[in-house]
């Protein structure tokens, strides 16, 4: 019996994933009560790897716009940056801001830049073009393809090279109508999908035979 008990304990320690508070969860269990209709596997993986965390009330709020502070926090956790709260060079990010450590190190490593030389605008929403810039810099995603594949993106569009890069990298394929929406906001669920594709090869978009990347139909998957 003692041997069986020891084996049970070892199995539990090795195979049962834990949350930050030590509560075990099943790998297939939805971590949030308001999970979106798409991206469950990606969100669950980010959650189990302690990259994506919910709000104090335990919800994800998937349709809420992701902020610049939230985005760099998730990227920082994914890259295992030092998130220790500290002073930053931005006047609107005090040392006690929850994301100050990730903002400071992300800025030092060239992953992010301020909205001005002295401000970061941590509560501002992340546009899709900014998302492309953040992820391409964070994960060193590049492309040799010079062509612009979206009707609403041209050589003068902010982040055009990074938009092309994440498209070639199978992280985004734009909207079904052939646009990318560079100035559109990015929801928390959408950012989680993009981040998961950048971080985990198994979540990258499938290659469509003959014409680049698969574009999905339907509202739930339109921002992929």
From TrEMBL:
The keyword Electron transport does not apply. Residues 26-85, 86-149, 150-209 form the SLH domain. InterPro entries: Cell_Envelope_Struct_Comp (IPR051465), SLH_dom (IPR001119). PANTHER family: OUTER MEMBRANE PROTEIN ALPHA-RELATED, S-LAYER PROTEIN _ PEPTIDOGLYCAN ENDO-BETA-N-ACETYLGLUCOSAMINIDASE. This is S-layer homology domain-containing protein. It holds the Pfam family SLH. Residues 1-28 form the signal peptide. It comes from the Bacteria. The keyword ATP-binding does not apply. It comes from Halalkalibacter oceani. Keywords: Signal.
């Amino acid at each position: 019996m003692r041997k069986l008990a020891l084996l049970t304990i070892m199995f539990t320690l090795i195979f049962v994933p834990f949350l930050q508070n030590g509560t075990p969860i099943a790998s297939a269990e939805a971590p949030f009560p308001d999970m979106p209709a798409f991206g469950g596997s990606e969100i669950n993986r980010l959650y189990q790897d302690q990259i994506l965390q919910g709000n104090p009330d335990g919800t994800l709020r998937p349709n809420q716009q992701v902020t610049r502070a939230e985005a760099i926090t998730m990227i920082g956790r994914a890259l295992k940056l030092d998130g220790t709260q500290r002073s930053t060079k931005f006047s609107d990010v005090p040392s006690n801001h929850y994301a100050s450590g990730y903002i400071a190190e992300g800025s030092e490593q060239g992953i992010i830049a301020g909205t001005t030389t002295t401000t970061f605008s941590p509560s501002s929403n992340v546009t899709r073009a900014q998302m492309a810039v953040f992820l391409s810099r964070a994960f060193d995603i590049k492309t040799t393809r010079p062509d612009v594949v979206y009707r609403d993106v041209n050589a003068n569009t902010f982040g055009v090279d990074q938009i092309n890069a994440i498209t070639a990298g199978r992280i985004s394929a734009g909207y079904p109508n052939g646009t990318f929406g560079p100035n559109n906001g990015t929801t928390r669920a959408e950012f989680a999908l993009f981040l998961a594709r950048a971080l985990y090869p198994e979540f990258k978009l499938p290659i469509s035979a003959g014409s680049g990347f698969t574009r999905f139909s339907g509202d739930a998957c339109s921002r992929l």
